[in-house]
Design a protein that fits this description.
96 residues, alpha+beta, Translation Initiation Factor IF3, five-stranded mixed sheet, 25% helix
């Protein structure tokens, strides 16, 4: 689910995602669609701050979200020794 929010003149795009532990779809299709959506939305909203969050259940997208300019904010394990949750911020939107 994608939400577009404007507050005090700043535009935000928030992606809320859930990838089940045993999906009935090909995870590669999920990843491709996710990053195609990110690319399309960032072209449509070049000044927006992007947040992507959700439960990815061991879906490995680390390199892809880094390539997309996103930075993982969760730095500790969320389930045992694993980090299942992702909360990423558009690194280009970080302001001092």
């Amino acid at each position: 689910m994608w939400l577009e929010i404007t507050k005090k003149g700043q535009h935000y795009v928030v992606g809320l995602l859930y990838h089940p532990p045993k999906p009935i779809y090909d995870p590669r299709d999920f990843v491709n669609r996710l990053f195609n959506n990110i690319e399309e939305l960032s072209c449509q909203n070049p000044q927006a701050v992007f947040y992507i969050t959700g439960d990815f259940n061991q879906l490995d997208i680390n390199r892809r979200y880094s390539d997309a300019g996103l930075t993982q904010i969760v730095q500790t394990a969320t389930c045992g020794r694993h980090t299942l949750d992702l909360f990423a911020l558009d690194a280009f939107s970080v302001r001092a």
